[in-house]
């Protein structure tokens, strides 16, 4: 018998990529209450950073967890979170959610020209 193990509405059926995208969305929604201008930004999840697109070189010790693409010529600003580097650095869902939120806060702060603590006063608290 072939078919899905669980129906699509059950959390078991969600892929790791879907669960990760939900963590990013949760973080964005948390910040949008304080910063409504985030509605004018796009938030993306990519598997890994591209070597040829990095503005500065990186190595095994400094693989980026996220990045930004400023708005230009009719394109909205973008915040990118790299799924695999974040997953590798975390052990469980709670730890992953915390790191995703930190990455989102840092990238939003960069785009807004603010400090991460201004974007989210609880930034850096465990």
Automatic annotation (TrEMBL):
Name under which the protein is recorded: Zinicin-like metallopeptidase
Cross-referenced InterPro entries: Zincin_1 (IPR010428), Zincin_1_sf (IPR038555)
Pfam families in the record: Zincin_1
Organism encoding this protein: Streptomyces humidus
CDD domains tied to this protein: MMP_TTHA0227_like_1 (cd12954)
